[in-house]
Design brief:
Number of strands: 0
Oligomer: single chain
Keywords: Cell membrane, Membrane, Transmembrane, Transmembrane helix
Protein name: DoxX family protein
Subcellular location: Cell membrane
Number of domains: 1
InterPro entries: DoxX, DoxX-like_oxidoreductase
Membrane topology: Multi-pass membrane protein
Helix content: over 70%
Length: 154
């Protein structure tokens, strides 16, 4: 068990991983769910997923729900490990179905047929860190755990 300075650093590390992951992923979810940031909203995105990408409806729905709701929950530190696992699954699916064939690098100069998977690997790394480390002290998950412990002692 860690105490003192080491524990505080882990808590700050978990908070940082949660917030970075949330703030980078949320705009993508908001594009798909709400049409914000130049996105097509739920109906347009589902049409693209099912007609162009040929994803099953349930898979397209899962993509939108994970990209929109997981970042919101991560900001709060609520259901952190569940959200991390969902994001890992999502990113692995995206890499395998859409980006693996394009190699590692993003298409910065437009000289590849599509985007590589380096961006998704960063998401996976942050999510794995959260899966292993947990949400940290500065989270609703930690507050709920403390509350359950207090009630168990009462």
């Amino acid at each position: 068990m860690t105490t003192g300075f080491s524990s505080a650093r882990l808590d700050i590390g978990s908070l940082t991983a949660r917030l970075v992951l949330a703030f980078v992923l949320f705009p993508h979810g908001a594009q798909k769910m709400l049409g914000w940031f130049g996105g097509y909203g739920f109906d347009g995105t589902m049409g693209f997923f099912t007609s162009t990408v040929h994803l099953p409806y349930i898979v397209g729905l899962a993509v939108i729900l994970i990209e929109f709701f997981a970042p919101l929950l991560l900001v709060l530190g609520l259901a952190t490990r569940f959200c991390a696992l969902a994001i890992i699954s999502l990113m692995l699916g995206i890499v395998v179905t859409s980006h693996l064939a394009n190699g590692f690098f993003m298409n910065w100069f437009g000289n590849q047929p599509g985007e590589g998977y380096e961006y998704h690997l960063l998401f996976i790394g942050l999510a794995v860190a959260l899966l292993v480390l947990g949400p940290g002290r500065y989270s609703v998950d930690a507050w709920l755990a403390r509350r359950r412990a207090q009630l168990a002692l009462a």
